[in-house]
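# nightly structure sweep
# worker-07 picked up a monomer target from the shared queue
# config: single-sequence mode, recycle default, output format = C-alpha cells
# input follows
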Amino acid sequence: MEDKELRREIVDAIRGMSLDGQRVADAFAHSNGLNATDMRALVLIMEAEMRHEALTAGQLSARLGTSSGATTAVIDRLERIGHIHRNRNHADRRKVTLHFEPLAMQLAGAYFGPLGALTNEVMSRYTETELRTILGFMQAIRESYDRHIRDRQPDGAAAPVNDGAPDGLQPGTGRNG
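# output follows
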C-alpha cells in the first residue's frame, strides 16, 4: 500500500471512529434524556472530578463554548435530573463547583463498561511499545485539531477548551470530530 493511500485510510478510520463514538454518546444521551450539550457537560464534569479538579460554572462555559446563561441552563437540567450537584466554596461562597453524582457514574458505568471491555480486548492485541506509539499519534492528532480550531477563531473570540471534552477520537465522545 502506498504511503498516500495509507494516510487516507488512517484519516478515514479516524473520521469513522469519531462518528462511531458520537453515535455511542448520542445513544447514551438519548436513553438518559440528555441533549448533546448536556452530555458534553456531564463528561467534562466527570473528567474534572476524576482528575480531582474543581470545575466551576465559568470553566464549564469556556470548555463548552457556550454563554453563561446557556451553561446555567445545562447545569440546572443536569442537577434537576440528579446527575450533578453544585457545591459552594466555604472560603468564597460566590465560587460554585460542579460535581458528578453517584447515579450518573452508575449509569455511565453500566452503559460504557461493556465498551471499555471491548476496547481493552482490542488493545490487548498490541505490545506496550505499540500502544505508546498509538497514544502519541492520537495525542498529536488531537493537538492538531485544537490548533486548527484556535487558528480559525475570530480575534478575541474564545475557542472551546479541549481537555477531553466529548467528541472526536475517543469512543463515546464528540471531540473536534
